[in-house]
Amino acid sequence: MRILVTNDDGINAPGLKVIEAIAAEIAGPDGEVWVVAPAFEQSGVGHKISYTHPMMIMELAPRRFATEGSPADCVLAGLYEVLDGARPDLVLSGVNRGNNSAENTLYSGTIGGAMEAALQGMKAIALSQYIGPRSADMEGGMFEPAVLHGTKVVRDLLERGLWDDTDYRLFYNVNFPAVPADEVKGVKVAAQGFRRHTSFGVEPHVSPSGRKFLWIKGGPQGVPTLPGTDAAANLDGWISVTPMRCDLTAHESLDTLRERLE
Question: In which residues is a divalent metal cation bound (predicted)?
């Protein structure tokens, strides 16, 4: 099996080492793991592509490359330059430091990498690790749940998950809870949730020169979403698996809108 790996935390991020190890187990001794990751952190860039300017790509080691672009750029670079059109059997994006549940999904470069892979007709899974009060005390480090459960989740999705070849094909968003690996309750298939009464915002700061700068600031991540959705499952100790598509159409509104407008 040939697997392409990317992330949004950058080529030196600890979560990338985790997903490389997962990919190596899945690919097997006769398989190939190719890494194309951003040279610098690209968190929050979503599905951005470097459409209006070129990006440098550097080979750091055999089958290991860094680009100046986004995770979606990395997938494009991996497919059309690094692999020269050879199709990977799977694209893995992550493991992100921090959850990509609920509305975080819409901002996530980790999800953007998986989304681009799906648009290119490839199987894709994004993996993220929730960070919480207990993360710093885990014996295996904050990525312990992803390290010990990640391979099984990916393998189960490959063997028993739903895959299709439609125009907007399925891809998967996986989030690991911030509890020790031996306390993980299992896997929950969950819809994308929404954290009510919290959102991204800005925090102003004034520089020594008197100029004002704005930091983008996220809301509290311990706010549960509705029962049966991703963040609620994660905060209750479950690994969430959410099937997704890139089609943003509100299909349930089409017939009513036709009646009103056509």
Answer: 8-9, 43, 96
Class of domain 2-194+224-261: alpha beta
Residue list, annotated binding site for a divalent metal cation: 8-9, 43, 96
Please tell me the distance from the alpha carbon of residue 163 to that of residue 117, in angstroms, as a whole number: 13
Strands 90-97 and 64-67: unpaired
Residue list, annotated binding site:
8-9, 43, 96
How far is residue 161's CA from residue 145's CA, in Å, rounded to a whole number? 21
